[in-house]
Write a structure and sequence with these properties.
Blueprint (H helix, E strand, L loop, with lengths): L1 H17 L3 H17 L12 H9 L2 H12 L4 H24 L19
Length: 120
Amino acid sequence: MVLGILCFTFLGLTISNLVQNENQVAMLNNIVTLPMIFTSATFYSLSNAPSWVTTIGHVLPFSYLIDAEHATFAVNAGGVVFPLLILFGFTLLAMLLALVTFRWDPNAPPMRGMMRTRIG
């Protein structure tokens, strides 16, 4: 659970680093979170879902958190390892993206190195 919290915290930091104002946060947040929620087995089973839905779900980190929680509730210790490893990879990627997009100055460009300063 802590790994999922870290992953989605870093993902939220990345989203907040990419926007210019508060109005854009909700839009970008919905673009990222709604596909994660509806392509994982959070609210319903995906056994009858089209294959493209499950494929998208396995590209996003939320389905691995749900798989790990399902394995935990089923007391299947072996089934927890793989989803947690994948979630750990997503956490590292989200942390790297949050670090790369971080800026102290709100008027600076969202990505480091996007705008080079002129010398001379």
